[in-house]
């Protein structure tokens, strides 16, 4: 797809967004209503996208959307299934306002019919199984509307459809809630009322109870400040829709896979830095230092990227928002895991420390070598004038253990989420052991958010041992631009005076970063596949050519093993169990310490 096609699609989207907003405001009569048009619906079905916007305005006109949103959240808080409850609410809301919209605005009827037809065509290539009562009910409702009430269904579905149709007479939001609640308790979970209470019990859930619950897992986006408020907003935006959002997402992903370009406006880019600060903590660099690093590192393949250097939201927050509390909770989980495995961790630290000490002792042993200066060796004096090898002196060479520096760089993308605590533990073991033998080292993690590669520094090279506990601040999110992270960490490492420089990289073998380009971007190619692998491998080879020893430790899926080998070559280790991370790294470090010793 060329630039002209992209611009045409963007203009088409903006035009539809404006049309949906105008329809919503006109139908509701409330020009203060906020709406987020679903961009992904535009290319799926114009009718669905426009009708969805109209329904949002109509629902706000006839009912209390905030009350409905809170009911859904409270019901889910009491263990109702989010997907099924939302689907039932969507069907009930359609019955409550669908005919009202067509009476008030006859022109909507044709758009409504087209939207129903598109949903049936796109979502139901075959009849749902008998066990999928929700799917069968949705088909029954849509076909009945399209046939002007003439669609016949089996008795098991008709019972629930008749109950659903009571929503047409709901005079206010409370009446509508009673119908939704009753339908859920009868159709989806007959034991719900006995276990968790009736509608009055649901509505009596307090805001304090809701605020204490962790809603982050329910959110569709990674970035949030107040998870409860974001979740309520997410539900209220979805509750008037009828389409299957999963299908919409799949269709949108396929489209993005073909084109893989996301363009942010200058205004959005200005806001993005603020969002990064809010979610990852303030940067520790001055504006001048930050500008310099971006100028030096973000070139060629990374020319439309930015770097962000932080010590984490817990160390330097902009404010104590939801993300701060989320990071705090994850740190506590990491620390609890450490306490659960305290004995094992201490034993591993002791073993790795001993291994490194032995290697250092071997390196510092004194060696005697023949030389052209030093202490004379009487037995070799006869060689003078008789042999070209007339070195008659001996000299002691003492190994030096102070010429080592280590960088540990950990992938903190979302793919590491399932082993987050274990990764933190292993990095802590390595850092503690290096501290015990007084080898300067730095520990960092990396991920990408929008066009920012976030480098989270847990400890600096010369930090005291106490700084190792910062590693428990390790959290995972978003994507990973491995090449840029390795290039940047390597730049700092090369500035060190130590002769022997070592970089340890833990990754999943999948360098992948969703492309977010500035307007008029020079590098719109997606960072994935061969393109990303080649870049990452190039950065590794470049560092090795400059004298840095680089070890790649792979903790991903076996199918990505070949990719990791391409990136790291001979100095590469595959671990099926993340608990072996510190052992693998320990053996590599010991080997490096013993070389030339």
Automatic annotation (TrEMBL):
Gene3D superfamilies per UniProt: von Willebrand factor, type A domain
Q: Which InterPro entries match?
A: CobT_VWA_dom, NorD/CobT, vWFA_dom_sf
Domain Cobalamin biosynthesis protein CobT VWA: from-to ranges: 393-450
Q: Which SUPFAM superfamilies match?
A: vWA-like
The record's annotation in Pfam families points to: CobT_C (PF11775)
What is the protein name for this chain? Nitric oxide reductase activation protein
What organism does the record attribute this protein to?
A: Candidatus Blautia faecavium
